[in-house]
Write a structure and sequence with these properties.
The chain is built from ten helices and 22 strands. By secondary structure, the protein is of the alpha/beta class. Helix 2 packs parallel to helix 3 and helix 5 runs antiparallel to helix 6. The mean pLDDT is 95.
Amino acid sequence: MRVILDITPNHTSRDHAWCSFRPEYYVKNPDGSIFYDCDWSDTAKLDYTNPALREEMISVYDYWLSFLGADAEGRPDGVDGFRLDMAHFINDRGFWNEAVARLRTRHAHRELLFLAECYGTQNNMDLFGRGLNAAYDDDFYKVCQYLYALDENGDSVIAPAPEAASNADFLDKHEAFKAGGIAAAFETALLNYESLLPPGDAGPFLARYTDNHDEGRGLYRFGAGAVQAVNRLIFMCSHCIPFILTGQEFGAMNRPSIHERIGPCDKGSRIVGARGARAREGVEFEGNLFARGFEARRQWYAFYRELIAFRLHHRELQRGKLFLLNAGEDCAPAERSVIAFERRTRSAAMRCAVNLGPELRALKEASLFSGEVLYGGLKGDALPPFSAVAVRVQ
């Protein structure tokens, strides 16, 4: 097991000791008061144009990478990396070039993960160029957010949100959806990075998820079918670190508390029915409200255990290249819900298909998946709703 630590490099709290004893570490307003981003009035933004602050922050990272003391060979040992909150927000991104290079040199005996919470393809690629080796794939998540909803029974359905067409970052995925269904929207999200990232084992990687402490719980927002299908895709796709939020493995429904111990939040669900669509508020709670009943929780736990083992046992899923396939889905182009692809390394190959929609889909090219079944399966020549199949390619 490896452990990374969550650090907030962009800001501190307003009651941090530095606000009193090192005020020069902070960005200032014209009146000399400490600046904060957005509406985060309880934070204080750090100033990375100050060389002293840069050295202080590098020492913070080095402390946690070394805090366990020396290993058996006398080398510093500690956490294995960091989740870097809003890494693209710091006021001098050149800090990352310096900090990551120095930390990797000092800890060259082990593999470190620098995972950026970051939003937007261009921002991610910029941070990758500065040495960070993983980042959130918010574009992937937005396909879930904008294209999935719940029906009146709480089941997952495909129903585009009105705001999907007005989000500039989502425009290409929205256009793909209109022409090629939810399958094309996810294909676009994946291919945007497939064309930019180098092949091979070294990364960088994208953290993909249905649950996130900021965004809330996929099970509550998108329903069980969507969460199962999308996580199957996550564990089978390329350049990916599957990201599971604590409690997700037992079917947690509420967003973990950020500011209030309990209360409503804006990370809710869209409910669609014969009378139109309505919003259901999310719930923020200091704890977890899990799926009802022991058997439901057991099934979610088994679901994720199976996916984790499947990915770990097949190197082509961890490192192989991705090539899209045409499974010959028997439906109108704009209704496509099956994404099919091959994952290949020099020594092994696997073909995968995931049905991201609520309808059984007949596949005209079902023979593509006639090999040894490694995960899931077809029903005749069709792929059941929200299910997947993976076969070995000889």
